[in-house]
Amino acid sequence: MTQPQTQNQSQPQNHPHTPPRTHTNRLVRVLRNATAVETSGIEPIAADARSGGPGSSFTLWFSSNVQFSSLSSGMLATAAFGLGWVQALLAIMLGSAVGAAAIGAMSTFGPRSGVGLLVQTKGPLGRIGAAVPAVLVFFKACAWFAVNSVLGAFAVQTLLGTGFGPAFAIVTVSQVAIALVGYGFIHLVQKTMAVVLPLLFIVVSAYALTKSDLGSAFDADRAGALGFGGAFALTIAVQAARALSFSSYAADYTRYMPVDTSPRRLFTYAFTGTWLGSVWIAGLGAAIGTIAFIGTPTDLVGQVLPGLFATVTMLALGISTITSSCLDCYSGALAWLIAGVRMRRWQAVLVVGALGGTLGWLAGQGDYWKSFENFLILLGNWIAPWLAVMLVDRYLARRPAGPAGPGARFGPGFLSWLLGLAAAVPFMSQPGILVGPIAKAHPPLGAAAAAVAFLTAGLIHYALTRRTGGRALPAAQDPSHPTEEITA
Q1: CB of 259 closer than 8 Å to CB of 114
Q2: What's the distance, Cα to Cα, between the start and end of the chain in Å?
Q3: Rounded to an integer, what distance in angstroms lies between the CA atom of residue 322 and that of residue 192?
Q4: What is the pLDDT of residues 95-124, one digit of tens each?
Q5: pLDDT at 310 over 80
Q6: What is the distance, to the nearest Å, from the Cα of residue 44 to the centroid of all Cα atoms in its chain?
Q7: Secondary structure E strands in 69-108
Q8: How would you class 315 by CB atoms within 10 Å of its CB: exposed for 0-12, middle for 13-18, buried for 19 or more?
Q9: DSSP state, 401?
Q10: Cβ of 259: how many Cβ atoms within 10 Å?
Q11: How many helices (H) and strands (E) does the chain have?
Q12: 3-state secondary structure of 452
């Protein structure tokens, strides 16, 4: 809203030597708005409360992908799957493009309705059906909060020379604090980090790339039964899955944008930020993987980086995990509210922080990879078919924007989503938890589970919405009841 001018501001000609304060006032106003505690919950954002532009999606998703989880996912391609660096880089570029496209597409859902993606899930899945993915997103967010808290604590512990406990407290409190302030502050932090993190990671990139074996070839012994095709496909799947995990959050960070925000520009900015950050850091991880396998950030000090390079890297990793995990805390809290829990947004943020912090503390006392790797994969399996349902429902069923009414308990999307998950089970390959018959007989096909789930759910939902006109299954309630009011 335009600020009224004071008498001095309206008569600048009387003070010819006083520089105009327009830019200063604008900066102060931006900072004040960004650091004001968000009071909205999951209800639609009013038109007069909308602001911002698609460019902020670039900085948000670029900064969120410049982090240790990107580094470690790229490292798997060479150190675990046996690909050469050039081969790994190509697979990383393809997988990152898939994940970035999902984030870009889901980002466009926010401005048109003023609500997050999980609220809009009530359209195709129904009111009760949508509660299931909301609960899954909540636990996924808590799990990622835990993992990133541990990674950040390792970095801070190495940087400051403290014990794990104090370092863990610094990281978790910082993440929760950013999420408590809310939407505007998260975007401000990510814009700042989009400048700071590249400066820090350029240093380690320059050193590590010169020391790595960029001409490495495919290692059949490391790939094992996967072979080259399986290793390449698995690298694509891992990179895509990491970014897909963020896609369930995407509209949370665009719902305050004006309704007339260009979907094409918004997609482009979100896609580009995600893809560049992911390819850069995962590609760097793949390069480091040709000379060492890094289990935690502290391993970088002893195995790869000396002296000043290690210090700069620890600083970058500590900051990046905090700025990335605050998204998990913020969106996990919104998911908890969408699941039907009655509390304020700030209270839900504390719930995510407490649960994720507890899980992270327990995992940090042992081998966090063994504690969380399979758990996170299981939580992420639902995203591909859910994404397919949402895309088909928007672009083919043409459902009106916004949440479904209270009479819609289950929609055709819920059945489509479940059948997509069921179709993927034979392809799932998670040793120790679930190895489907097709993945067991043909290990390279274990990377196809998400793609099978996506295609199956999308095709089924398209068929069902053509038959039902895109309407959710009715509930035994008064159909004249007004649209459900969602409160924080």
Answers
A1: yes
A2: 25
A3: 13
A4: 999 999 999 999 999 998 899 999 999 889
A5: no
A6: 21
A7: none
A8: middle
A9: S
A10: 13
A11: 22, 4
A12: helix
d(CA 213, CA 201): 19
Distance CA(180)–CA(347), nearest Å, equals 9
Residue length of the chain? 488
Instruction: Mark 163-182 as b/e (b = at least 16 C-beta within 10 Å).
Output: eeeebbbbbbebbbebbbbb
Residue 80 carries which side chain, given as an amino acid letter? Answer: A
Q: How far apart are CA 177 and CA 343, in angstroms?
A: 18
Q: Which residues contact 438 (CB under 8 A, 6 or more apart)?
A: 426, 427, 445
Q: Which two tokens stand for residue 56?
A: 């902020």
Angle at 422 between CA 106 and CA 245, to 5 degrees: 30
Q: Which two tokens stand for residue 146?
A: 């835990």
Q: What is the DSSP string of 73-142?
A: HHHIIIIIT---HHHHHHHHHHHHHHHHHHHHHHHTHHHHHSS-HHHHTHHHH-TTTTHHHHHHHHHHHH
**Token pair in block for residue 351:** 């719930």
Determine whether 6 is exposed, middle or buried from the number of CB atoms within 10 Å of its CB (0-12, 13-18, 19+): exposed
Dist CA 215 CA 291 (whole Å): 12
What is the Cα–Cα distance from 454 to 456, expressed in whole angstroms?
6
In three-state secondary structure terms, 222 is: helix
The angle subtended at Cα 295 by Cα 293 and Cα 301, nearest 5°, is: 80
Q: Which pair of structure tokens corresponds to residue 422?
A: 């069921």
Amino acid at 183: Y
Which tokens in the block code for residue 197? 């993190």
- What's at 373, amino acid-wise? E
> How far is the C-alpha of 309 from the C-alpha of 229, rounded, in Å?
36
CA separation for the pair 122, 395 (Å, rounded): 16
Q: Give dist(CA 148, CA 254) in Å, integer.
A: 24
Tell me the C-alpha distance between 146 and 379, whole Å.
14
pTM of the model: 0.84
User: CA-CA distances (angstroms) from residue 337 to 64, 138, 246, 488?
Assistant: 24, 9, 18, 7
Per-residue confidence band for 485, with pLDDT thresholds at 50, 70 and 90: very low
Query: Please, are residues 129 and 411 in contact by the beta-carbon 8 Å criterion?
Result: yes
Q: Which token pair is 339?
A: 């699941």
> What residue ranges in 215-346 does DSSP mark as E strands?
none
pLDDT given at position 467: 60
